[in-house]
Amino acid sequence: QKILTVVGTRPNIIKITRFTHESQKYLSIEHSLLHTGQHYSQNMSDVFFSELQLKQPDFVLKINASTVVSQLVNIMQGIEQTVQSYKPDLMIVVGDVNSTLAAALVANKMNIRLAHLESGLRSFDRSMPEEINRIITDSITDIFFVTEQSGVENLTNENKLPEQIFLVGNTMIDTLVAYDEHIKASPILHNLQLKPASYALMTMHRPGNVDTKEGLLKIIEVIDYLTQRIRLVFPIHPRTFNKIKEFDLQNKLSANKNLILMDPAGYLDFQNLILHSLFVITDSGGIQEETTFRQIPCITLRPNTERPCTVSIGSNTLLNFDLDKIKATVEQIFSNTYKTCAIPPLWDGKATERIFEVLSKL
Ligand code: UD1
Ligand code: UDP
């Protein structure tokens, strides 16, 4: 059977790094990869293919989109053409980004069986674009690959059948496990002249946090507090960078001597930064999971999470922008009284293997 996997963004790419390797174990499977071009900058896309030595995508779309709707339309038209010529038996979509939704709709309209990697996650917050993408995608998915127990429960509550649902674990962790040696060999601490556990690591890119001036000012308030206590490394997502420029807030960051601002980091450098940080502060989805696997304290500045096991089992704490609570949690980390945590079941580096076992029996 011909399988076409669709990726479009940084986290999508990081979730499929073992697909080629695992698919090659099955003579009955032909696997191809399509990149929608949603993320296009070198440091948001190409860097992962080169440093993780991934096979280049078989199909790459060139989209020229200035609005979300034109982004979706462009991606759908590009995938439609590829599906017409390649004729896959099954499509796999990843995560919850616009490329996921666009590809899922094309699969549905063109009668292609659809599998969704990382399905069933719910923040129950419909103001997040990703939540809508997740709900619509899952409503037309045939095969659900799930990372954590909450996903199984959510899908069951949405009347999906047990035989469609596969709790396989987390393919993002597969990448961490597979590249562990390379991650540990990254020279990033040396390059930034940092010692292990002497700094915190920040990322921010959720529209709800960075798209308004008020949101950015709240982030700057948190940065000002944190950098009084510790050095802070902040690789800036292009969305956030553009918004900081738009609201003319650069000078509020550039004067801060304890703040290390940088472009988006490559995967190996970023993982090395996580591994050696005292704690991470973020609004990312995937980083909540990676810190849980590493058992590094993570403060998530959001009102909710679609990945609740990172809080109930893992090292994650949800705090939103309550500065007093952030201060109290940071003090717990400094005084070694932060909560104890564990790694969720099946986050063992073998999720992709389980996925292809399932696919080989379809
Ligand atoms: C997207 C996903 C989000 C995910 C994030 C991962 C949607 C709705 N959102 O958000 O769920 O957490 O990716 O990083 O799909 N840009 C560049 N270069 C790039 C990519 C983006 O400069 O390679 C800039 C562009 O100005 C673009 C803006 O960032 O307009 C936003 O990019 P977009 O892909 O629409 O959303 P993200 O914020 O990256
Ligand atoms: N990441 C990276 N470099 C960075 C920031 C993040 O390689 O500068 C990785 C991170 O380790 C994780 C993925 O990108 O594997 C998460 O992507 P992002 O936070 O953009 O998206 P989300 O998970 O929120 O959808």
UniProtKB/TrEMBL annotation:
UniProt keyword Acetylation, yes or no: no
Alphabetized UniProt keyword annotations: Isomerase
Ranges for domain UDP-N-acetylglucosamine 2-epimerase: 26-359
Family matches, as InterPro entries: UDP_GlcNAc_Epimerase_2_dom (IPR003331), WecB-like (IPR029767)
Pfam families in the cross-refs: Epimerase_2 (PF02350)
GO MF, one example: UDP-N-acetylglucosamine 2-epimerase activity
UniProt key word Transport: no
Database matches in SUPFAM superfamilies: UDP-Glycosyltransferase/glycogen phosphorylase
Superkingdom classification of source: Bacteria
EC numbers, comma separated: 5.1.3.14
Family: Belongs to the UDP-N-acetylglucosamine 2-epimerase family.
Identification of the protein by name: UDP-N-acetylglucosamine 2-epimerase (Non-hydrolyzing)
Organism for this UniProt entry: Rhodocytophaga aerolata
Encoding gene per record: wecB
